[in-house]
Amino acid sequence: MKTDYLFSGLPIKRVEGILPETVTDLAVNSRTINAGGVFVCIKGFTVDGHAYAQKAVEMGARVIVASSPIDVDTEKVAIVHVDDTNRAIALLAPRYYRYPSKEMTMIGVTGTNGKTSVSNMLHSIIRHIGEKSAVTGTIGFDLDGILYETENTTNDVLTTQQLIRQAADEGCTTMTMEVSSHGLLEGRLSGTEFDIAVFTNLSHDHLDFHGSMDNYGHAKGLLFAQLGQDLERAKFGVVNADDPWGHRMKEMTSYPVITFAIKSQADFKATDIKLGVDGTSFHLLSPEGEFDVSMSLIGEFNVYNALASIAALYAKGISIEKIIGGLAIIPAAKGRMEKVETNLPLTLYVDYAHSPDAIEKAIQAVLPYKDADSKLIFVIGTGGNRDRVKRPIMAEKASIADYVILTTDDPRDEPFESILSELEAGMQHQQYACIGDRELAVRHAINIADQGDIIIFAGKGHEDFQIIGNEKFPHSDAQIALEEAEKKFRSRFIKN
Ligand SMILES: CC(=O)N[C@H]1[C@@H](OP(=O)(O)OP(=O)(O)OC[C@H]2O[C@@H](n3ccc(=O)[nH]c3=O)[C@H](O)[C@@H]2O)O[C@H](CO)[C@@H](O)[C@@H]1O[C@H](C)C(=O)N[C@@H](C)C(=O)N[C@H](CCC(=O)O)C(=O)O
Ligand SMILES: Nc1ncnc2c1ncn2[C@@H]1O[C@H](COP(=O)(O)OP(=O)(O)OP(=O)(O)O)[C@@H](O)[C@H]1O
Q1: Is 180 annotated among the ligand-binding residues?
Q2: CB-CB contact of 85 with 102 (8 Å)
Q3: Which of 74, 131, 337, 487 sits at 20 to 30 Å (Cα–Cα) from 401?
Q4: Which atom of ligand 1 is nearest the CA belonging to 28?
């Protein structure tokens, strides 16, 4: 790319050395920059990228963008001095990738719970009707059926633009992105033009980062504010009218807002909801008339997720018949109330609930189907060195289950004892155990289970690791549970 073009529009304080005519890469990581590239030094939470400028030069960088003094040989490399490198990369990244979000319908999904579930519903339905689609989020980057690992739910601004470019070049008509409040506040979405912004709900989470619910809600609202003011373009907000924050989101955009709800008046409303053990059906009231909807996903929370998806795809211009045709056949997102296949006499679910509201919703999804003489066992852990205020509230919600096993979910550097005692403070009954080692906690759940019991392993979802210290160790709730259950139940209950 022509260097002049890349840097036009960037407020530059001064340039040292000679800028090359063209550059071949744009990077924020000295370890992966290609020769001939521009390295932007980012001050992170852990290290300062300015310390890696020399390494980037050794890798072949031709230009360094910096906001602090750096020690490199300006015979070999040009230094572009700016005030703020975070703002610089936010301007450079979309330009370098040629503003790719303008080439597709971009859908952003935000909210405390349901982002992954709704994003994957949208992606699956779009693919079902025969269009190419991409989605990024907690599970990774799914480029029309091929999954790539990513670091964050909402990636850094450079990765984001690179993934959008990949999706556009692949011919995707739509890209759906899970939008985290961290991502919005840190400007990771700069240069991403969304067409549809979806808000699922807001409840207690991440208060260690945001400080208050008001700040947290405001951060989510940035997605709606960032729809912009170019009212010539057809853009839409989609909000949950049953959530008090739905109205606040509506105030943050000038674009039309479509509402969905179960309890309140809304454009898309579910009535006559039938929650089954193997699926859900409801009657849909919509601006296009009434429809019967059925799907294999369980729990009332998935009715909300389905309504959000129907409203967003309606905003994109897809017919409601086609949308509900797709909904009828889609599987649960990986690790979201996902049933573990087994012919042993137990029902096992792996779930990603790690906020108080999600815990309550996950338990309520199965409680009605439990036999009177069987138990619902709930295994729940929380992360170390993160939001401590939510711990007792998580245990309080988990107490709806008959038996609760309190454990850890990425303890990091925090001792098991402090995590467990803060969880334990919220327990509402005595039927529980505290077991810090998650593997032992999963085995204990199987060992206290009787035939016919239901166990939900919550918090890890799709993840196949446990972070202890700074290291990721392989860990799968489903695999450990099946192994233990085979030992315990196979000989006892399965004849032949
Ligand atoms: C606290 C936080 O936001 N951390 C993010 C941040 O990491 P960091 O600031 O520690 O980065 P750093 O290691 O200091 O590096 C600074 C710079 O030096 C560069 N560097 C570093 C080393 C080197 O050898 N060479 C080099 O050039 C790095 O590439 C980077 O440009 O920048 C990284 C790259 O973009 C992110 O992956 C990382 O997210 C971490 C993994 C994280 O846990 N973030 C959480 C708080 C988060 O953002 N979560 C939300 C989801 C929340 C939800 O559940 O809803 C999310 O969107 O993921
Ligand atoms: N609409 C919803 N309302 C409340 N709880 C939900 C909803 N959808 C899913 N859940 C519960 O929350 C858990 C997490 O769901 P999901 O991964 O879709 O949310 P998320 O917003 O992507 O979460 P995260 O930000 O942690 O990745 C699920 O496993 C389920 O237990």
Answers
A1: yes
A2: no
A3: 487
A4: 31
Per-residue pLDDT, 493: 55
Cβ of 31 less than 6 Å from ligand 1: yes
Give me the CATH topology for the region 3-96. Answer: 3.40.1390
The C-alpha atoms of residue 100 and residue 98 are separated, in whole angstroms, by: 6
Instruction: Look up residue 331 and give its DSSP letter.
Output: P
Tell me whether residue 154 is annotated as binding.
yes
Supply the mean pLDDT for the chain.
94
Tell me the residue ranges of DSSP E strands in 223-351: 236-240, 257-261, 268-275, 280-286, 289-295, 338-339, 347-351
Beta carbon of 183 within 6 Å of any ligand 1 atom = yes
| Comma-separated ranges of CATH 3.90.190.20 domains in the chain | 338-489
Supply the pTM of this predicted model.
Answer: 0.92
Q: What percent of the chain has pLDDT over 70?
A: 99
Question: Which residue matches tokens 């990228």?
Answer: 49
> Who lines ligand 2 at CB under 6 A?
111, 113-117, 138, 153, 178, 200-201, 301, 304-305, 336-337, 351-353, 357-358, 361-362, 461
Is 217 annotated among the ligand-binding residues?
A: no
Is 116 marked as binding a ligand? Answer: yes
Q: Which fold has domain 338-489?
A: Protein-Tyrosine Phosphatase; Chain A (3.90.190)
Q: How confident is the model over 63-120, as pLDDT tens digits?
A: 999 999 998 988 889 999 999 999 999 999 999 999 999 999 999 999 999 999 999 9
Q: Where are the domain boundaries for CATH 3.40.1190.10 in the chain?
A: 100-327
Interface predicted TM-score of the whole assembly (ipTM), two decimals: 0.95
333: confidence class by pLDDT, cuts 50, 70, 90: confident
Q: Which CATH superfamily, name and number, covers 100-327? A: Mur-like, catalytic domain (3.40.1190.10)
- The pLDDT value recorded for residue 492 is 63
* Lookup: tokens for 158: 């450079």
d(CA 304, CA 264): 12
